[in-house]
Specification:
nine-stranded mixed beta sheet, 37% helix, 15 helices, binds alpha-D-glucopyranuronic acid, globular, alpha/beta
Length: 434
Amino acid sequence: MGWIVTTLKWLVQIVAGLVGLTLLTNCTMLGLNYASLEVDNKPDARPEIAATTLAEWDAGRDALIETFEEVVYGPWPEGQAVELVSRKLVDAELVGGRGTLEELIVRVGSGEGARSFHVALALPDAAQPVPLIISQTFSSNCGAFPGAPLTAPDGSDCADYEGIPGFVETIFGEFIALVPIDQYFDRGYGYATWQAGEFIPDRQGEAQAIMNAMAGEGVTAPTGALSGWGYGFSAVIDAIETDEAINRDQIAVMGHSRHAKSAMVAAIYDRRIAAVVSHQSGFGGAASSRSDTGETVERMIEGVRPFGVLDMEGYPHWFAPAFSDYAERTEDLPVDQHQFIALVAPTPMLLGNGRRDVWSDPNSTYRMAEAADRVYELYGTDGLDQAGMQDFNPAASLSYFLRPGGHSITQRDVDAFLAFLDAAMLQGNDVPGG
Ligand code: GCU
């Protein structure tokens, strides 16, 4: 009798475990499920991009940006003062003496609402100006360059930094915090990185108050953190643009996940940006807002509570307040993300995806890219030039990359980023230091 009860208990636990796993899989980014290679089962790209000439597209571009500002991202900050407050050398012998590491403090705005953040800037020694990747991350600069005498976002010394927990790297990849600077130097790139949350904190109430305080006479403040963080990329460009060691025509922006979304916003407004690496941008990025696979807009805004236990807050503060009104009725949105991708055109852009990152919806991302392709072509570029989700063409101006694995930054991603960046920024140029 006892063994029957024990077996039944085991069975109940196994079934509960399986149900739990399925629920978690569907509403978290743990990467336990697997994207199909189907595209046509995703929502249509609506409204269709109707422009048939570049002039037509150009004529409607500003109005389209305005609609995105109204219903999705809020305004792009205008009139904000940007100042390079300080710049100091922290390591003259980076990567075994192949370059330098500096720490910059960049300030945006003035008066009480001004915000400052630390940027770590690594430049390879080179005889000519180098191309630069500007990346925005979750991790502090301490995690990007472990062991370097940099400053943590709270102003403390990176010497006190204890590293990220091992499981974070296991889930999110070996380069989720760490910058493979040797690999970037090998290909001649400089690399600047900063933690977005130091500029505008990634917390609901706090973010709104800080953005509101950035407003002033003749100065537009962001109402959504993605536009604010996007503006941060521009501020970094302002701060380093006159540096003769950097090739100002070869500045790329790079971001993962929420920072892939903000990198896209930046590229729409700041046309100095020569290339975009938008890795696993998902909802509010390159995925269709109308898709019901993975995170969905509703979960992104309202959060999720698997089992009513794990309380994962939403991110309404990333967007204009109006976007929250659409969370449960995305069918009514007047725009979708194919138009958002198209607004980046003709700037070359890589859309990175993971097959187990269903959370970010690789399928609708491909569908959106297909629909945006028309605008890249109107500009006379090749646009999305691949036969399907797995046919990666790093040299295309709109390049879609799908690898196995989940929501992470891995060596395969870094290889893809570099292949794309080389093609987008260096083709025809001598690779400095190469
Ligand atoms: C959350 C969020 C996503 C976002 C991701 C990230 O999962 O809901 O939209 O892309 O975090 O930034 O890693």
